[in-house]
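Chapter review: from sequence to fold.
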Amino acid sequence: MSGMQPTPPHTVERCQLLLEHWRSQLQLSPRDQGLLGGELRLLDRQLQRLEQRRLRIALFGRVGVGKSSLINALIRRPLLETDVAHGSTRRQQAVDWPVEIAGLTRVELVDTPGIDEIDAAGRARLASRVAMGADLVLLVVDSDLTRADLEALQTLLESGKPLQLVLNRSDRWPEQERAELLRSIRARLPVDLPITAAAAAPRSPQIQADGRVRSTITTPQVQDLQKQLCRQLENEGTLLLAIQSLRQADRFQRACQALRLQQHRRTAQSLIGRYAAAKATGVAVNPVMALDMAGGMACDTALVLQLSRLYNLPMTPAAARLLLTRLSSHNALLGGVQLGLAALKQALLLLVPVSGGASMAPAAPVAVAQAALAVHASRRTGRLVAQQLLRRRGGQPGALLRRLAERDPVVHHWLLRWPKALEQDLQPLLP
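The token string follows.
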């Protein structure tokens, strides 16, 4: 990210404080903890890494592209087992990268299993798991992009994960052919991403005493990759940790919302139905417009209080009325029609003495329409209230991230460069 100033330290510190407050406000029942235990452990590990300033870089790619060799070359030790023919990594392995980066106490390089030994669904799951546990992902290739590479890349991009591409074994091509290969890779990328050529275990031909030619491994060519990574981590390392933490927290928040909506959907629907019926009856039989409105507000307030208790998010009547006021813009059209119908009904009823009772006939269908509209408005209000109630507990990490993006040009750049994480659609779970 040339031409941009690094994110000020206080930005990340502010983000950390907000996340700590949000985490402290989480209230989970024993059942919630049982169902969301895995997600919660991932979240807590990420928040701990943010506090300790420990950053994780995951190397991802097909079997045999040289992920383990790249890590060995970067740490300058043959710590990870390598097997060029078939690959040897069967599970994620993390090793420390001995580099000094301002603002970070530790950088971990994570080796991952090859993505082409499993089916497409398994690849997507592995890519998602890697994305959740890493602050930066290096997609390693050793040729032009394959179908497996592109599928993994798409999954990583959809997760909102910062990415770099590494063309390993670049020593196999002459300079001109290597440049053409890099252009081909860039042309097939769905977004613009940094690409660095490297050779973790370059081979050089050697003539033996018996005249035979054998290749021997020479000095790794990873200087450009190391410079690229160090430059990025110096400018954005702590920011990467903060972004990943916010995304992880937002993911957990959405999982909580989905679980609570699913658990209480039928009960919420029953509550909304009862209050909708009560509101409809009240506005239909009440001849006074002011009492119509007051009765409707009382029913809606009681509904909010009941829903808040159902989702274990208690609030006061004053807070319930404030929430309804904030949601009024969503029901502005419905409210206007309701007000018009109430005024029309009242006018028709007032004309009864003058019209000799003739105005009673049109007043009845107006009352029916008013009742039907009240039922629809109550159901809509109930859905909106359920959605808002689950968002308000302890703040919303996704909202924190968006606010940060508005104020910090570096964060804004990241959110534009990489697509946002796919948001779980909660609409089918609303009452």
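Two observations follow directly from the output. Strands lie at 54-61, 93-96, 106-111, 136-141, 163-167, 195-197, 203-207, 213-217. The longest strand covers residues 54-61.
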